[in-house]
Amino acid sequence: MTQDIDLTIDHAGLTDNLAARRYFAKFERITDHLARVAGEMERERTFSKTDVSIVSNYVQRIAATFRALSQKYLLTGRDTGVFFGSLNIDRVESGFPVFGELMTMANDAQQAGRHLDGMRSQAELKDEMIRQIVGDLTIPTKLQYAMSQRLYYEELARGDLFWAHNDPQAIWQGNSNGRKRYLIHWAVYDSRQNVPTIYLMEVEDSGDISLPKDDRRWPAAQAHLAAQSTAGLKLLTIAQGFDRDFDDLHPKRLRRVHVGPMYSSAFTLQSGPIREVLEEAQAAPGEDWALAWTIEELWSERVELEKKGWFGQVEREIFRLDPFAGRGAETGATSIERAIILPQKPFQVLAERQPQGFASVRKFVVSPAGRVVAYK
Q1: With a threshold of 0.70, does the pTM exceed it?
Q2: 3-class DSSP state for residue 118?
Q3: Are 301 and 320 in contact (CB under 8 A)?
Q4: Which domain of life is it from (predicted)?
Q5: Distance, CA of 236 to CA of 253 (rounded, Å)
Q6: At 57, phi and psi to the nearest 5?
Q7: Which of 144, 200, 314, 323 is 20–30 Å from 285 (CA)?
């Protein structure tokens, strides 16, 4: 009999106000740098201009999600008269907020309008704060809490956040051999790894109706992709399942981008070389971090015809797997590119130590001025 794994055992709440503010400030810097990293990948031809636009949009949405959570937990550790908990983060696996935080946020977003209607405006709250400070000579903690919650719901109402599930969208890429080509992209917040994960699939469409306008195929394709978007599934499994379920949709390339884990000696307990590097670097609070960035890629190598029914035939994609040391069967991908993004001081320690396994990891180094430089 198998025993379920307790996925919450490594979770911890940020109960100190200063620590919570430092955590959100750290992620604000990191997400700001990620768009520049994507730009470097375009220059190196890892990403196309369209890819960069898509990935950058998801990064902006991740930043908006952190901004909303920072407002929700703005008064962490302060006596507000209301128990509202603390931000729960995955300290061991990812360094990101746990999946449950995004599920709660999605539920709050559905009721954001109702909450805002029942709250005083920002101007009214500020005016009352001033009156309490000047008249009573006390800190208006409860009013500050009310303001933080108003700002939180305003962020949710504004939208464009990174949700637990971000539905597939299709971008027309032109025609090829009489077939329409689409780039389908979607994203999820992986519930086991607690990291944002972005998917991009290039598809040829041999159907009669344009895919996004097809009321029969497009909702089914969206549901299929959303259901298969877990880090536990190999790209090969996802692509083959899609290929077999949709005879007139032909996946030619599938990529998965893992944004994380985030390492920080101040907030996470990950073991291994990166933690040792960060501890030795002893960087300033805003420079004490490293973010992993992994791109898995699967290409279709050729097409084979498969018999279907009495007289019919359908195309089936044969995917190219990593040929080195039989790793393709293990990884289910054509290639995997690993990268790490980190500030200058931790990179200097990493370069000096040269820990095993990092020779093939791409390094994107952030200078104190915010410039991103790529190193092999």
Answers
A1: yes
A2: coil
A3: yes
A4: Bacteria
A5: 10
A6: -65, -45
A7: 144
